[in-house]
């Protein structure tokens, strides 16, 4: 018999170790592993990690087999792995109903369980009795399923199982916006069952999605039906969120050792090598000890100070765990494997304990069991009698092992690391999908752009400009469809009737998904980007906005494209991209097309050409789930309909798999399916044109009366609104409008915005019973002179009868109210009446597909959001990702059912997300973004610059185009100068004002000025002299730039000082009053009459206060201040020093807590002075002062500084008018307007008042008063 080689003997030794520590515990029936002898339940995460050593040993035997017995051993080990993975699969498949529910709810009650019965695969605890929602556990299973399948194991055996795995992909693809309990099952570190977004979960989900994409679960024996598909956009959402979070682990954990599994093996989820190193060093520096790494700072698990009788911690109790956190050897096993993968066999020698390699250090703390087997303990804890010594000198006390012995998860990783370190396994063998190369730089991306003309007429217009393109018809047999159709198609993916799985939820299709070509039943499809789909949301109606979004998408593709082949964008030119005459391309669009042809646009390399030229170089995907089944049909046999049934079918029914009973050879089922979807989403023309004269003037204010006025004006007393005109268009106050009596009691306004009492007061057509005659309202649609009046009538019908009421217009039953509103939306879109577009979008509840993603982007950048105006409870806070429907409901509620404000809030949220992705520095030290106040600032800035009333400013704001709205928002949050250009134009048989935002150049003039506005003004006057009206959209009348003295000059506003007028009254609750137009205008006129330099610091403080801006490092300094006093009091609200015992200085939770106290101050410039006061206090923390008092009244220090300022200015000769005090706060208005530095700066007086306030606590030689 042949003798064993040395390697074979060593492998046999590892086989005995695996058998004695892992495999002997494996259940003979289910294949599952219990957590330990004392914990008989099987955790999903622990099972997957525990079996990795078995898998690795099987691969080592397969490669190093000396004899047949070794091959048999390899097979046995591999089948043990398959048995366990299939056991976990059975556990999860028994909860298929939860998978289905969770795809839509992302709720903790609908998630898969985290642990199961080892012997039966059944659940062991109730849905609410454990922190089951652990996205990283499910993701880890899927990741290793992919790696093991790629290594040659056959784990998935049927198409039903393939469909289930596909639905698990849908389950985890929303991980980037799902707050869970995390890898430690406790959620927030207070252990009170609070979920939070965890970097370890997001990173593991990202890795699993990438690993499974295009993977055949049947391995070499599979076919198209067993391939898993992942949408690349979901992967990139996880990537961007992960990148923004690291090295922070979550909102309550500034660092967590579990992130090692994300930045290295097994996930390799981070592509930035610098960020990987920063995160690793953060963990080693802050968490590493002599026995491993702590899980996170102030982790109380198994410490002597933890109360074993309580499952939660008191917030102030967390300070007790500092410096005595248990240390886990497990994390050194991760670092050993990481060292092998990175090629650094002596990883972190300098940072390692006592200068040892991690492997040597780890072997020094393993426990020897029976037969000399080395076992990894769960953790090392400080002995109870040595706690005080460890407090005084961290990492000096000898610790004792506690918990599971061995920790099977850690034992497995240790064995796997040893196999790799000794050369039995190469990195590529346990990473066959090559995830370890995530940080390797990717090749440059060239974006292929195919410009298409919607019609032959548009093709001719482009030809005239020297741009040669094809039409949609010319590219046949390649088919061009909008992005929403691809979303509908993907909704069929993973559907399984037997398991009641409905497939992928209908979601927004991102640019990565629409930049591929798709093979569907032997046809090639290309899909246009989502942002040009005008039926989805009104942003696509603005050509400037389309160009801006195209630029953003091209840049995004260049930085995020990771697939084989080049991305291909199909960019159609439609009639809406022509100018008002329809004979020329819109100038912005034309300039963009020329830049695309030049080969460089928005920082991206571009290649323009025909679709047929890109077929060989594009990324192409075969959607095999759309292939015909055994009967030659795409759809399930149980749903059979004739072609005549098309009109009876709802689009949603089609998404659930309806079949057309027709000969497959002569009937293009896919084409009919797509045509049907398109027909169901394109409105038919049913609405009569607007009448030339006459109309229903008494309905003009009805729409605003019913919903907006009932929700705002009638509630003003309760809600403390200072100026109702900020939210209600000013025309409802005009004398020419029909007067409407408002009900004093808000209770009469029900949740649907319907008010029968209000209808009784209005002059509406009545039937013989006294009820509103809806048929008469329908008749009025034929004679309405304007689109606005048609919208008013349709809104009344929508309110009274609902969206699905058949109007009987021109026929029976006639189009529904919703269909007429949809058609009106398209008509109004052609006229670019933005206020009306926004309003109808609100009625129709148009779905802004990117809204929840925008919200999640903002939250993941460690920003909390508020919607609505203060105070609470009207102002709603969003601190965790929530589903789209819940988010819209919250915004509607905070907007008090005001449709325009609700839709504008959504729009602003999307713009903020765009900016935080591209320019996160704009949001530095802003932890709470208050969208209601931002909208208020935007309106008041327009009021200030246009010298108009609040109501007119609101109307102007609502009439801004999306691109101008986005530009104004940018100038507000960036502090850059801007100008406002105002003109008039004829729209819909009336003359309206048009406002646009102009960028101010280095010379202090706007771009229109530099282009020669005098000539333009002269031409416009000639048009006026010609008389009459012109085509829709043509500018008429005097073209005027507002804001400065010249007849044709543009206002320039120095945003070192931006004005802001509070809507929220500074008076005490119950004493608020509505400001009339006169008083608001007088404020603005008073501001406008001052020296341009006067008021600039007050305006800046107002803006920073409204935007919650604070200096860099402010919150960390506040944390240090709290350690030297009993608390800070701000206007009666106390920030106690006990907060520091709960939270660490770098926690986002602490910053948000401080901010919530400051936000109790309603006046923003006063709030900002309080911030400056605290900033002066923070200067004391570096002095050798043990305490600076008990509870420090911050406002008292500010008022002391104000008195010092007042007395000094009085002594210098200032009169009472100059030293006028703010009646709400008692602060001199001149102090508000003082620069921080200088002889009379605020810091001078604040420093003096702080010194006086804490004088008794300062050292004798500390300071002297000047």
TrEMBL record:
Keywords, sorted A to Z: Calmodulin-binding, Carbohydrate metabolism, Cell membrane, Glycogen metabolism, Kinase, Lipoprotein, Membrane, Phosphoprotein, Prenylation, Transferase
GO MF assignments: calmodulin binding; kinase activity
Regions that span the bilayer: none
Phosphorylase b kinase regulatory subunit alpha/beta C-terminal domain ranges (all copies): 1090-1212
Function description: Phosphorylase b kinase catalyzes the phosphorylation of serine in certain substrates, including troponin I. The alpha chain may bind calmodulin.
PTM annotation: Although the final Cys may be farnesylated, the terminal tripeptide is probably not removed, and the C-terminus is not methylated.
A Pfam short name: Glyco_hydro_15
Subcellular location(s) per record: Cell membrane
GO biological process: glycogen metabolic process
Major localisation: membrane
Taxonomy of the source species: Eukaryota, Metazoa, Chordata, Craniata, Vertebrata
Domain GH15-like: from-to ranges: 8-932
Bilayer topology: Lipid-anchor
Similarity comment text for this entry: Belongs to the phosphorylase b kinase regulatory chain family.
Protein name: Phosphorylase b kinase regulatory subunit
Annotated Gene Ontology cellular component terms: phosphorylase kinase complex; plasma membrane
Residues where lipid is bound covalently (S-farnesyl cysteine): 1263
């Amino acid at each position: 018999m042949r003798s064993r080689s040395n390697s074979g003997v060593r492998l046999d030794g590892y086989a005995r170790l695996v058998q004695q520590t892992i495999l002997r515990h494996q259940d003979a029936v289910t294949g599952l592993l219990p957590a330990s002898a004392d914990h008989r339940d099987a955790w999903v995460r622990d099972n997957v990690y525990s079996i990795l050593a078995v898998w690795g040993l099987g691969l080592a035997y397969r490669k190093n087999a000396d004899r047949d017995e070794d091959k048999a051993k390899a097979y046995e080990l591999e089948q043990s792995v398959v048995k366990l993975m299939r056991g976990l699969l059975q556990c999860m498949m028994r909860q298929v109903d939860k998978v289905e529910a969770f795809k839509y709810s992302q709720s903790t009650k609908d998630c898969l369980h985290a642990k199961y019965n080892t012997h039966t695969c059944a659940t062991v605890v109730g849905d609410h009795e454990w922190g089951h929602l652990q996205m990283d556990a499910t993701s880890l299973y899927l990741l290793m399923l992919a790696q093991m399948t790629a290594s040659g194991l056959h784990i998935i055996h049927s198409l039903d199982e393939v469909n289930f795995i596909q639905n698990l992909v849908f389950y985890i693809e929303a991980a980037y916006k799902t707050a869970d309990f995390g890898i430690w099952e406790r959620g927030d570190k207070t252990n009170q069952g609070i979920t939070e977004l965890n970097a370890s979960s997001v990173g593991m989900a990202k890795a699993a999605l990438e690993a499974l994409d295009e993977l055949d679960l049947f391995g070499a024996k599979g076919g198209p039906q067993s391939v898993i598909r992942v949408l690349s956009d979901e992967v990139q959402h996880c990537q961007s969120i992960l990148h923004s979070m690291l090295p922070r682990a979550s909102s309550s954990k500034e660092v967590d050792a579990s992130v090692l599994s994300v930045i290295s093996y097994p996930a390799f989820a981070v592509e930035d090598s610098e960020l990987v190193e920063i995160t690793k060093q953060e963990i080693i520096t802050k968490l590493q000890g002599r026995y491993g790494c702590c899980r996170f700072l102030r982790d109380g698990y198994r410490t002597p100070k933890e109360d074993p009788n309580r499952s939660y911690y008191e917030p102030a109790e967390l300070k007790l765990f500092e410096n005595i956190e248990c240390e886990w050897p497990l994390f050194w096993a991760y670092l050993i494997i990481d060292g092998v993968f990175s090629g650094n066999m002596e990883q972190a020698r300098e940072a390692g304990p006592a200068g040892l390699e991690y492997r040597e250090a780890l072997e020094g703390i393993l426990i020897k069991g029976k037969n000399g087997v080395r076992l990894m303990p769960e953790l090392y804890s400080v002995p109870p009698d040595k706690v005080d010594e460890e407090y005084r000198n961290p990492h000096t006390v000898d610790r004792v092992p506690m918990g599971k012995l061995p920790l099977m998860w850690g034992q497995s990783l240790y064995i796997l690391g040893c196999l790799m370190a000794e050369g039995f396994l190469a990195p590529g063998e346990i990473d066959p999908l090559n995830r370890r190369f995530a940080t390797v730089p990717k090749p440059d991306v060239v974006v292929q752009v195919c410009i298409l003309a919607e019609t032959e007429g548009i093709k001719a217009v482009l030809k005239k400009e020297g741009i040669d393109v094809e039409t949609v018809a010319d590219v046949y047999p390649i088919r061009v469809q909008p992005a929403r159709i691809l979303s509908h198609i993907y909704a069929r993916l993973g559907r399984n009737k037997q398991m009641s799985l409905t497939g992928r939820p209908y979601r927004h299709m991102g640019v990565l998904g629409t930049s591929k070509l798709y093979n569907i039943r032997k046809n090639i499809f290309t899909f246009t980007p989502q942002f040009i789909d005008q039926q989805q949301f009104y942003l696509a109606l603005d050509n400037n906005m389309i160009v801006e979004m195209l630029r953003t998408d091209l840049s995004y593709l260049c930085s995020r494209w990771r697939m084989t082949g080049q991305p291909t964008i199909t960019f159609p030119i439609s009639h809406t991209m022509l100018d008002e005459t329809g004979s020329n391309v819109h100038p912005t669009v034309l300039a963009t097309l020329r830049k695309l042809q030049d080969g460089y646009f928005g920082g991206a390399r571009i290649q323009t050409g025909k679709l047929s030229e890109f077929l060989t170089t594009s990324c192409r995907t075969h959607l095999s789930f759309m292939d015909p089944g055994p009967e030659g049909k795409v759809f399930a046999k149980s749903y059979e309909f004739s072609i005549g049934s098309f009109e009876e079918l709802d689009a949603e029914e089609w998404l659930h798999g309806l079949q057309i009973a027709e000969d497959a050879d002569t009937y293009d089922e896919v084409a009919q399916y797509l045509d049907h979807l398109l027909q169901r989403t394109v409105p038919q023309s049913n609405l009569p044109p607007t009448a030339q004269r006459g109309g229903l003037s008494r309905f003009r204010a009805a729409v605003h009366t019913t919903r907006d006025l009932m929700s705002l004006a009638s509630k003003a007393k309760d809600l403390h609104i200072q100026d109702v005109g900020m939210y209600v268009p000013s025309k409802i106050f005009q004398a020419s409008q029909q007067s409407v009596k408002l009900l004093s009691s808000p209770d009469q306004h029900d949740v649907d915005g319907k008010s029968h009492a209000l209808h009784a007061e209005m002059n509406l057509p009545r039937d013989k019973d006294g009820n509103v005659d809806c048929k008469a309202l329908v008749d009025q649609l034929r004679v309405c002179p304007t689109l606005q009046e048609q919208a008013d009538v349709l809104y009344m019908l929508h309110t009274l009868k609902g969206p699905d009421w058949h109007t009987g217009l021109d026929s029976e039953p006639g189009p529904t109210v919703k269909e007429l509103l949809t058609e009106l939306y398209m008509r109004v879109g052609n006229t670019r009446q933005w206020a009306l577009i926004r309003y109808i979008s609100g009625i129709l509840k148009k779905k802004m597909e990117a809204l929840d993603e925008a919200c999640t982007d903002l939250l993941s950048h460690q920003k909390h959001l508020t919607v609505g105006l203060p105070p609470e409870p009207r102002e709603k806070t969003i601190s965790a990702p929530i589903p789209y429907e819940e988010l819209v409901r919250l915004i509607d509620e905070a907007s008090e059912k005001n449709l325009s404000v609700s839709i504008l809030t959504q729009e602003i949220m999307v713009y903020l997300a765009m900016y935080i992705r591209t320019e996160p520095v704009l949001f530095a030290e802003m932890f709470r973004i208050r969208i209601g106040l931002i909208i208020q600032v935007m309106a008041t800035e327009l009021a200030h610059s246009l010298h108009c009333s609040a109501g007119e400013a609101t109307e102007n704001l609502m009439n801004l185009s999306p691109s101008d709205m986005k530009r104004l928002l940018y100038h507000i949050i960036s502090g850059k100068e801007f100008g406002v250009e105002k003109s008039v134009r004829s729209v819909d048989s009336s003359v309206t004002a048009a406002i646009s935002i102009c960028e101010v150049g280095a010379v202090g003039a706007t771009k229109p000025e530099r282009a020669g506005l005098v000539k333009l003004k002269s031409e416009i006057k000639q048009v006026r002299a010609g008389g009459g009206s012109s085509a829709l959209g043509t500018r008429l009348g005097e073209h005027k730039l507002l804001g400065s003295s010249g007849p044709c000059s543009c206002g320039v506003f120095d945003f070192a000082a931006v004005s802001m007028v509070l809507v929220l009254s500074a008076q005490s609750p119950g004493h608020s009053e509505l400001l009339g137009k006169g008083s608001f205008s007088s404020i603005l006129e008073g501001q406008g009459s001052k020296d341009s330099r006067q008021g600039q610091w007050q305006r800046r403080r107002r803006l920073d206060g409204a935007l919650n801006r604070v200096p860099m490092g402010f919150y960390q300094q506040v944390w240090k201040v709290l350690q030297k006093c009993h608390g800070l009091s701000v206007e009666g609200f106390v920030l106690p020093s006990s907060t520091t015992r709960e939270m660490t200085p770098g926690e986002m939770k602490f910053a948000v807590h401080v901010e919530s106290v400051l936000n109790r101050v309603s006046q923003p410039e006063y709030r900002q002075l309080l911030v400056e006061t605290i900033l002066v206090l923070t200067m004391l923390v570096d002095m050798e002062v043990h305490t600076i008092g008990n509870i420090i009244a911050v406002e008292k220090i500010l008022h002391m500084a104000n008195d010092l300022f007042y007395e000094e200015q009085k002594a210098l000769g200032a009169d009472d008018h100059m030293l006028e005090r703010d009646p709400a706060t008692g602060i001199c208005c001149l102090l508000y307007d003082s620069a921080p530095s200088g002889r009379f700066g605020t810091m001078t007086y604040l420093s003096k008042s702080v010194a006086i306030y804490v004088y008794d606590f300062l050292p004798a030689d500390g300071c002297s008063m000047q």
